[in-house]
Design goal:
By secondary structure, the chain is α/β, with parallel strands linked by helices. The chain is 46% helix and 14% strand. A hairpin with a 3-residue loop joins β5 (128-131) and β6 (135-138). α4 (85-93) crosses α6 and α5 (101-107) crosses α6. The mean pLDDT is 88.
């Protein structure tokens, strides 16, 4: 749901991580540092550019509260899902390890757009979850 940058020099890989987080529509948080410390350049710059300033874990929890409630909400009982044949195949393909939609579609012998359509329905009923980068897991 979010990425926290604690230390990052001027040309740090953590800044690339921050960029990837924004591309994936994740919240970006940064812990400020002393202006004379080279490792504080990155987080301080990110805060100037709009990252949420973090002084404690509560800052993160408050910001993500509504998203956490949704993510932690229990899924409906499996009996209520009423999966059709294609959805059952897709559900059976998934496990607790994230699988990319390309892998899922190949496994189910479907096109990617078809697979995404059915995965969306499964996601709306609470049977699967999408994680970063078009990867899916069982809910």
């Amino acid at each position: 749901l979010g990425t926290v940058i604690v230390e990052a020099g001027e040309k740090s890989g953590a800044l690339l991580t921050a960029e990837y987080a924004l591309e994936q529509n994740r919240e970006l948080f940064a812990v400020p540092g002393t202006v004379t410390t080279p490792q504080a350049i990155g987080p301080n710059r990110l805060i100037k550019q709009g990252a949420k300033l973090v002084e404690s874990v509560e800052d993160i929890l408050v910001e993500l509260e509504s998203k956490l409630e949704y993510a932690l909400k229990p899924a409906p009982a499996r009996a209520a899902w009423n999966l059709n044949g294609v959805e059952q195949v897709l559900y059976d393909t998934l496990g607790s390890e994230p699988l990319h939609v390309d892998v899922i579609s190949r496994s189910a012998s479907m096109t990617v757009p078809e697979t995404l359509t059915h995965l969306l329905r499964l996601e709306l009923m609470g049977a699967v979850r999408q994680v970063a980068g078009k990867h899916f897991i069982r809910a």
